[in-house]
Amino acid sequence: MTAKKEAIIKALRPYFQITELVCPDVYKKFNERAWQFLDTDALHVLLVLRESILCRPMYINNYGRGITQRGLRCNRCQLVKEKATVYLTQHGFGKAWDFTVEGMTAEQARQKIIAEQNKLPCPVRLERDKTWVHIDTLEQFGVTDKVYLFNG
Hints:
Layout: H1 3-12, H2 24-30, H3 40-53, E1 58-59, H4 78-81, E2 96-101, H5 106-115, E3 124-127, E4 133-136, E5 147-150
Parallel strand pairs: 3-5
Antiparallel strand pairs: 1-2, 2-4, 3-4
Helix pairs in contact: 1-3
């Protein structure tokens, strides 16, 4: 693991446990080593969102409440298993987060991210019209926008 990734993980730990970022099967098999499967840019985006843009608690997975597929998804996750066609979600590559923000609607959070996009460490995609925020770090061919809005 690079020194940059280790520093980002160290900075994220006060805000997120690994169980909030990976599905239960990944955590069960790898425990704390599951951090290795998460993309460095996606982790950096998460840190910037939490500390510099949204500046509020963010909620990804919560195993106790049955919310388990909003970070890294593996081949055993229901959302993956039920697909009948090719499914190349960025969640499967450790490059995407679905989350809610304390005290903000999803649209308020999206608008704040767009307004403060200059703070983001890399280009991101935001999904439109959801009751949660989806953000990912897919590098898109031919797209140069810092924040690209898409329909899921």
